[in-house]
Amino acid sequence: MKKVIIVSVLIFYIICSTYFDSSESLTARVFKVEYGYGYSIFSKEGILIKQEFIPVLQEKKPFCSKNDAKNIADLVLEKLLNKKNPAITLIELEKLQIDINCVDLHK
Which end of the chain is more exposed for a tag (fewer CB within 10 A), N or C? Predict the structure, then answer.
């Protein structure tokens, strides 16, 4: 599963670095999903990323708060603008104090 995610992110990164200029206007928007929040990254052509779950986690859990989703969206946006791999790590989740335990999906 992790290999699929990593390969997908790398392919996305290659496409993004090939097809858009870092000076292009990119925006991040947070949206409501069942049990929490997600985010999208937009370019003038449309949606580049639609993330309904906290990246990196094995289990599909939404962000617990709007602020958590915004903080990760801003980090992804910053990485894209700097032509870096937009993948998020567990260390980054911890550093930004992203709550990953607010939703129990096994109820």
Answer: C
